[in-house]
Every structure is written in structure tokens, then in C-alpha cells.
């Protein structure tokens, strides 16, 4: 087959959506909701989005495959690094197992390295992506479980509202203070669309105490409560967690799952007997990283230490664009 791999064009948006729909519907044939076409559109809102890293495979004028490499800023071993997130990647079911995905991935790696990105990160099948150099068990999506049992709590001091543009400088500064020295972290961005809600079952919110910002939370309406992202400054974590528990359970008691390490949580709740943090980090095989720039000491050293067991895998919090999958019923 004479397959051409090239950058996407605006005129490709509809066929790209169609390929993603057909590919993922075939993967889950009983599922009546396919989120990937919508996710591609939302990832184009990323302030670092680069159409030269959104690749299509074309055969005789028809698009039969698509791979999206989304650029993000990361922290790796306390240093800012540039990386890409691969996904979704889709191939028309009629052309699967014909090497189309291979062409897309290899070209994406080449272009990302050429543009100065040091690594690629994904969640995917362990029997496929390692063939392209992806290392398994490189990060975790989960962090800790916090059990809250607080007696006195005046919820009338607190107010919750949607995120607005004026909140961004505070949230960016607080995020950098919390994560600037992490072994691995993904920075959401500098714009409102990178901090606001994109999932039906998700909520992105700013919590105020006494009219002042206490913190930012992005959570899923689940039981137990699952908080995907939490940004709070020194001393604010006990009140923030107590408020979120009260909002969800009707009292400042219950379990909350956090995408923060138990070490980070324990620092934030130090000295309080009302909170207990338990490590829940889990680096599954599907959570992979490929080093694109072998000369980059930060990402190479990170992977080496995680592989050797000298360092716990870092926690990756994907931005809200990925939340469109949450809450769907299969």
C-alpha cells in the first residue's frame, strides 16, 4: 500500500473524527458512547497544540489513520521539560494490522524529537507500544487515599464557585509551588480552558474561605469521592479536604482518593489527627514513557531510577480535556 503520512489540515477534521469513531466503536462494539472524536477536538484547545504533531495516514486520498501527539510542559526531577502525550491513535478497522499505526507512531516520534520534545508518554497496550521503545510502569494515575474524621467544621465559612480567568495566576503559582520539585508532573497550562471542566461527571471548582481563595479542585462525582487535581497552598489542605468531604458526604468525614502522593498529603495535614493518608500509587504496565532524546539527562535518569526500583513512579494528572470519558455507562 502506498500510504502517505502527513500533518492534519482543517479539512481533515471530519474524516479524523470518523476514523476515531470507527476504530474505538470496533474496540467496544456494545458501547453507545465513543469519546475519542470529542477528545481530539478538545485537545486542539491546548495552548501548545501543534497541527504538525497531529498526523494522518492517507491512502488513495482517504484518511485511514490518525495519531495525535499533544505537547505539554512537564516537571522531571525538578526541572521543566517538554514532552508529548500520545493519544488517541486510531486506524480504520479495515486497515488494522497492516502497519498503519507503525508509520504514524514512528513519524510522530521523529517530528517530536525534531521539535525539541524529550519524551513521549501514553496509556496503552503492553503488547504493542513497547515495540516502539516505550518503557512500562513509568508513572501512576493514583496517589493516596485520605480518611477524614473531623468533628468541628463550620461550612458556612466556605463558598464554591466555577473557575474564572482571574484565578489562573493564583492557581499557576500554587501549582508550581506544590509540584516544582516533583520527580514527574504534568503542568496544566496558563489558560482557563486548561483548568476548566470538560466532563459531564467532573467538576472544576475554586473553594473560598472567608472570601479568599483556599484552593482549586477537579473531582469526579463518585463514591468514594475521587479528586483528580488539588491545588492548595501551605496550611490550607485540612480545610480544603474537610470542605470537599462535607460537600460530598454531608459531613466532614469519609474517604477521598487523591492524585497526590501520601508524602505530599502528609506534609499538608501534618499535626492533625483528623486525617490519615494511605499510599495508593500504582504504576500499571499500561502507563508508559519513551525517551526520545537520549541526551536529555533528566528523563533518562528518571526512567533508569524507576526501572531499578530506586524511585517511586511519579503521578501524572492528565488535564481536563481527557475527562470526557468519565462517567459514561458501558
Q: How does this structure look, described?
A:
The protein has 330 residues and is of the alpha+beta class. Helices cover 25% and strands 32% of the residues. The chain has seven helices and 16 strands. The strands form three sheets. Strands 1, 2, 3, 4, 5, 9 and 15 form a seven-stranded mixed sheet that branches. A seven-stranded mixed sheet has the order 8-10-11-12-13-7-14. Strands 6-16 form a two-stranded parallel sheet. Helix 1 crosses helix 2 (36-43). The protein is globular. The mean pLDDT is 93.
What are the key terms here?
single chain; 330 residues; seven-stranded mixed sheet; 25% helix; alpha+beta
Percent of residues in β-strands = 25-35%
Shape: globular
Cα gyration radius (Å): 21 Å
Oligomer state equals single chain
Total number of beta strands = 16
- Low-pLDDT stretches are none
* Major sheet summary line: 7 strands, mixed
Layout: helices, strands, pairs:
Layout: E1 3-7, H1 13-27, H2 36-43, E2 54-59, E3 62-76, E4 79-91, H3 100-114, E5 119-123, E6 139-140, E7 144-149, E8 158-162, H4 168-179, E9 184-187, E10 202-209, E11 212-220, E12 225-232, H5 237-249, E13 253-258, H6 262-268, E14 275-279, E15 287-291, H7 297-307, E16 314-315
Parallel strand pairs: 4-5, 6-16, 12-13
Antiparallel strand pairs: 1-2, 2-3, 3-4, 3-9, 5-15, 7-13, 7-14, 8-10, 10-11, 11-12
Helix pairs in contact: 1-2
Q: What's this, in brief?
A:
Helix content is 25%, strand content 32%. It has 330 residues and is of the alpha+beta class. The mean pLDDT is 93.
